[in-house]
Amino acid sequence: CPRCMQCDTKFDFITRKHHCRRCGKCFCDKCCSKKVPLPRMCFVDPVRQCAECALVSQKETEFYDKQLKVLMNGATFFVTLGTSDKSELMVCRLSNNQRYLVLDGDSHYEIEIIQISTVQILTEGFTPGGGNTRAIGMILQYKVPGSEEVMQMKFTAGEDFSCNKKLSAAWLAAMHKVSK
Q1: 8 Å CB contact between 117 and 150
Q2: Distance separating alpha carbons of residues 100 and 110, to the nearest angstrom
Q3: Which CATH number is associated with domain 74-179?
Q4: Which DSSP letter does residue 13 get?
Q5: Per-residue pLDDT for the chain (180 aa), expressed as one digit of tens each?
Q6: Do residues 56 and 129 make contact, with C-beta atoms less than 8 angstroms apart?
Q7: Is-same-fold flag (18-68; 74-179)?
Q8: Per-domain residue ranges of the chain
Q9: Class of residue 6 by CB neighbours under 10 A (exposed 0-12, middle 13-18, buried 19+)
């Protein structure tokens, strides 16, 4: 690798080459100066990464530190299937292997994450100036395995004290970040 793969600076005795620990490409010190933890690759301490990889690693770390824990702990929602008028109180959480959305109540559902096609967060409190909004629910569309049929579920945060609205709002916010 005779040149920096970002800025094309030639490597010599003074301009040393460095490898990004995430992508493995060669960079000069200016283009590979960020030091970010990379736990998924077993680097406990912060390691040298190029700017692009450092940004991805920071977002990934935020996801694992914040959103993943919230999603796995779960929250309580009123869940409505399809166009039904009847809703059921269910605990919704991400499975331990992070492959399924598990819903438990009187009924039990497991939706494979890869089958989810649309996540729409429902909000209230919108003002024309872009003021404070809060998540009150979500509409989830997914394919049923073995068919091309698209199903829909509506999740609504409960209004009573048995349903922790703050927890439900945090879960919805985490789901919204994940879906982006």
Answers
A1: yes
A2: 6
A3: 2.30.29.160
A4: S
A5: 999 999 999 999 999 999 999 999 999 999 999 998 887 788 889 999 999 999 998 888 888 778 888 999 999 999 999 888 899 999 999 999 889 999 999 999 999 989 999 899 888 876 566 566 777 889 999 998 888 889 999 999 876 545 577 888 888 888 888 776
A6: no
A7: no
A8: 18-68, 74-179
A9: middle
Residue found by looking up tokens 């394919």 in the block:
143
Beta carbons of 138 and 51 less than 8 angstroms apart:
no
Cα→Cα distances 92→21, 147, 155, Å: 37, 24, 9
pTM: 0.65
| Separation between Cα atoms, residue 44 and residue 165, nearest integer Å | 36
pLDDT of 166: 81
Q: Can you tell me the distance from the alpha carbon of 64 to that of 41, in angstroms, rounded to the nearest whole number?
A: 14
Domain 18-68 part of CATH 3.40.50.300: no
What backbone phi and psi angles, to 5 degrees, belong to 53? -70, -35
Name the nearest CA neighbour of 157 among 77, 84, 98.
77
